[in-house]
């Protein structure tokens, strides 16, 4: 049975707590509060080739460090991150431009187990900034499209201007990927769906008993989406979700990201649904 | 050309309904097409119909004077719209406006209410189907109200 694959030992330097200097190659504003950075190791720093689903710890010197999921892989050793400006560190990251230096640790955590789901229908369910960790899954499927059956991306956001990667949707569709997009609120200028992301499931073309699902977004959204998919017949062990918690050390020492018996930084962030289902309903966690 | 009971039977809303019931229900239905901008339902007017969407898209809206209509949900292939026909005072609560060419099966609510009253078993089956839709729509609305994509304070 598929399970998320761990890669915590991938730290090439053997010093997982020591950030190395990387350089911003490109910065692009996606939405008013979301920026995509392409970064690469500075001269003398070790390259770290993460896998989709994993995260790096990005350190803005003098301000702090945050975990950011991989949103893509660039040329050679470059890594792409899409960052939402929600706090002091992410705000500082969103101000960086080409040539700026930041500290990088990782990659850490588990990856999306896409290689275990070859031959299946793939359902990708994303909410808000949760599209970022799933973008490399779409890219990987496009690069190996014949290995998968029906593929559908269900993507929801609060409003149209908050949607990410809209300029890539045409190429996804051209690769025979069904792309269904919805927003919670919109005016008449918007010609797509309006409603929560779970409403897209009924428009998605996939065989539940042949499908695997990859979900990332607000926990409530993931919970309802997972429940709906399982209710429709998707094997719960094939529903994978990426959890977001307050990762600090990223190697399972500090416990900041602990969720019941799980260290999200070490055992996750990608988990199969049966390991999260009960925990996501525990108020005290 | 498919018979209407076949068309209805292929719609997810009536999945599993017996041939006899489909035949009975089909007697209250007809195929219809709504062009972009046409209203299927208008708030405050008698709710005489409900619709199975075969193909197309429509918006559910609320209107306030002097303001653009507020669209709170869109519906598409395989959805059902309209439940006020089933509950007194049988007045539509929202507007339903066609966005694309929307192909539907349109049901006469008064006709179907009569058949449900005459056959409580059928009435209970229909009530359960609409209740499931209502619960789903209610859950979706709650999720929408939670505004889960908001920034964390």
Task: Describe this protein's structure.
- The complex is a heterodimer of chains A (285) and B (153).
- Chain A is of the alpha/beta class.
- Helices cover 16% and strands 32% of the residues of chain A.
- Chain A folds into two domains: 5-109, Elongation Factor Tu (Ef-tu), domain 3, CATH 2.40.30.10; 112-242, Rossmann fold (3-Layer(aba) Sandwich), CATH 3.40.50.
- Chain A has helices at 88-94, 131-143, 169-174, 219-231, 264-267, 273-276, and strands at 5-6, 20-31, 34-41, 55-60, 64-69, 72-73, 79-84, 101-108, 110-111, 121-127, 151-157, 177-183, 193-194, 211-216, 239-242, 258-259, 262-263, 270-272.
- In chain A, the strands form four sheets. Chain A has a seven-stranded antiparallel sheet with strand order 5-4-8-2-3-7-6. In chain A, strands 13-12-11-10-14-15-18 form a seven-stranded mixed sheet, sandwiched between helices. A two-stranded antiparallel ribbon of chain A has the order 1-9.
- Chain B has a single domain, classed as Jelly Rolls (Sandwich), CATH 2.60.120.10.
- Chain B is built from four helices and eight strands.
- Chain B has helices at residues 4-10, 19-26, 109-118, 120-146; strands at residues 29-34, 39-41, 49-55, 57-62, 70-76, 80-81, 95-98, 102-108.
- In chain B, the strands form two sheets. Chain B has a four-stranded antiparallel sheet. A four-stranded antiparallel sheet of chain B has the order 2-7-4-5, with no helix packed on it.
- Chains A and B meet through strand 13 and helix 4 of A and strand 5 and helix 4 of B.
What's the gyration radius of chain B in Å?
16 Å
The CATH class of the largest domain in chain A is identified as Alpha Beta
| Shape estimate of chain A | globular
Number of domains of chain B: 1
SSE succession of chain B? HHEEEEEEEEHH
Give me the CATH superfamily of the largest domain in chain A.
Nucleotide-binding domain of ferredoxin-NADP reductase (FNR) module
User: Going across the major beta sheet of chain A, what is the strand order?
Assistant: 5-4-8-2-3-7-6
Bin the strand percentage of chain B. 25-35%
Q: What's the multimeric state?
A: heterodimer
The percentage helix of chain B is 25-40%
User: What is the CATH fold-level name of the largest domain in chain A?
Assistant: Rossmann fold
Stretches of chain A where pLDDT is under 50 for at least 5 consecutive residues are: 6-10
**Rounded to an integer, what's the Rg of chain A over CA atoms?**
18 Å
